[in-house]
Amino acid sequence: MPFPPCESFGHCYAGKRITWPQLLGKPAAEAKATIERDLPNVTAVIVPEYYIHSDDFCCNRVFVFVKNNPQRTVSRVPVVG
């Protein structure tokens, strides 16, 4: 699964939204579009609910964890990192 190169710097997006609790239960495509509209320098990466990822913190990435259902709904609150 390709990801953008990781960018980590100071306090990511101080004063801007970095979590999206309102996206829980929403379709993956809607969540991705919302996140990338709110923070244009971020790539929202849709991954399965139990995807194992590295612990590196990236200011330009948000994992969108989705359930394995026909709607592919968001299963965890998306967070920058």
TrEMBL record:
The alphabetized list of GO BP terms reads: response to wounding
Is the Hydrolase keyword given for this protein?
no
State one molecular function term (GO). Answer: serine-type endopeptidase inhibitor activity
Task: Fetch the Pfam families from UniProt.
Answer: potato_inhibit
Alphabetized, the UniProt keywords read: Protease inhibitor, Serine protease inhibitor
InterPro entries the record matches: Prot_inh_pot1 (IPR000864), Prot_inh_pot1_sf (IPR036354)
Q: Which family does it belong to?
A: Belongs to the protease inhibitor I13 (potato type I serine protease inhibitor) family.
Q: What is this protein called?
A: Uncharacterized protein
In which organism is this protein found?
Papaver nudicaule
Task: Provide the organism lineage as a comma list.
Answer: Eukaryota, Viridiplantae, Streptophyta, Embryophyta, Tracheophyta
